[in-house]
UniProtKB/TrEMBL annotation, chain A:
It holds the Pfam family dCMP_cyt_deam_1. The keyword Metal-binding does not apply. Residues 1-21, 222-263 are annotated as: Disordered. Residues 247-260 have a biased composition (Acidic residues). PROSITE patterns: CYT_DCMP_DEAMINASES_2. Keywords: tRNA processing. This is tRNA-specific adenosine deaminase subunit tad3. Residues 154-329 form the CMP/dCMP-type deaminase domain. Belongs to the cytidine and deoxycytidylate deaminase family. ADAT3 subfamily.
Automatic annotation (TrEMBL), chain B:
Pfam families: dCMP_cyt_deam_1 (PF00383). PROSITE patterns: CYT_DCMP_DEAMINASES_1 (PS00903), CYT_DCMP_DEAMINASES_2 (PS51747). This is tRNA(Adenine34) deaminase. Keywords: Hydrolase, Metal-binding, Zinc. Residues 18-138 form the CMP/dCMP-type deaminase domain. Gene3D superfamilies: Cytidine Deaminase, domain 2. It comes from Polyrhizophydium stewartii. SUPFAM superfamilies: Cytidine deaminase-like. The keyword Zinc applies.
Amino acid sequence: MSDQGQMAWSTPEPVHSDERTRGFDPVTVFVATVPPRSLSALLPWVSVLSVGDNGLERPLGALQHLKRVRPANGMQQVILAPVAESTLSELELLLARSGIDTHGDSGATIDQVAVSRWAPATRAQFDDWKERWPMSFRLAAAERSDALSDAEVAAAQRFMQLALDAAEDAAAAGDEPVGAVMADPKSGVVVARASDLRRTHHPLMHATMACIEAVASAERARRAREAASQADEQPNAGEKRGRHDNDQDDGQDEVAEPDEGEGRADLGGYLCSGLDLYVTREPCAMCAMALVHSRIRRVFYGERSDEGALGSAHKLHVHPSLNHHYLVFRDLRRQLQP
Amino acid sequence: MSDKPEQAATTAAGGFTAAEQTYMRQALALAEEAYAVGEVPVGCVFVHDELGVVGQGRNRTNETLNGTRHAEFEAIDQILALRPAGTPLADFVRDTFARTDLFVTVEPCVMCASALRKLGLRRAVYGCGNDKFGGCGSVFTIHTDEVGEGSKYEAVGGLFRGEAIMALRRFYVRENDHAPAPKRKGRRVLKTTFD
């Protein structure tokens, strides 16, 4: 580690869903520009246009994030309908019924305007897209929760260094150079650490899978001790320390228990609730889904992988059909300073 | 009932051979075993074209406290334990799974679908689809993705679909009745018709 002074950590970057990263995606709508005095006559007809098949009002179908009306140079502009769902002649007729002549000298016109197809998921999208047409925005809870404090970044670097050490161990053992660490962010305790075993022991024992199993085996051991001590009705002081007492030479180090005494009894079967995983390489689909099944809280990874499922080939952690989502941060790695 | 695979001359109802039906019946029996001990009722068998059934498994996530211990993983561990001393791991995996088919009561989830690809499985036959986690067509198509470790494989569903669904429905109705506090959805009723 002679070059340690020149190494620096890169800043972890949150991996967002496509909904949060996409740019402006236009959909063209017919917009009526009318004198302010004509607006009240027009709006009832516009709402009639908006009643869906089920009889319920749908202000603009899939475009409910858009404001219906905006002022423009002393006139009022009203979204009538998406161009794909209406025709100019139909809408001219609608305006004529409201007493608005789009061919006369009132200044009333019908034009096409490109507006955002999607509701904004981030403040940046909102600030950009509302310039095209006013829209409403509710800050999602997800956007508030993925800002890392300085203390969290420092802790993340410490945990990732342990994962890098585990990756070195894997390489030294002739296995895939990947390492993983499971940590409890509340207590700062390392719950489990694992090196990749796919080449030397088991083709599916990637570092992440080995780490999940290490957490499970530690919890099984803890429960067994608890059951034994209850049977004896004598708490065993030596067992209470509960670390490194059941190490197997299989690369799955039980480093410490997350919470002595309380254990992890409140998990409801979901092993990694509240825990964070640090892994040196982007998890594949198998490992990313294993983390869904384990109800992981957050994942930090270093290198990206073409077949990775947390940002590269898939974004499994935010997939709408899955019953658990988690936060992902990537590019947490040590680099040589230029 | 023989463990030996056999190519039936005629195709049974639903387009599956008699041998395939036999293997799925075994998988369903394993799902029942899971149900009996409070695990999500999913079972599977792996069938080698020469050796017959080489691995069988059922869900063990509650017992192991590990949400990744699906039926497939349990059975795969049995197969890996068959590796003769001296045979390199990668060789054994490649040579074995290239001649092995999976019969599983529920479509493999994304995790299992990806695992089967890494192992080089030949073919997966499943009972019912999995519209939440399915990795072989329902939600993801891990088995045929261009990107991914391992090799693509064929996956076909529908063999004893009704039996597989009924096992899951009975499980979730029972879970609901055992819940300490009533769930929002209220008391669930066992539905016996299929869409």
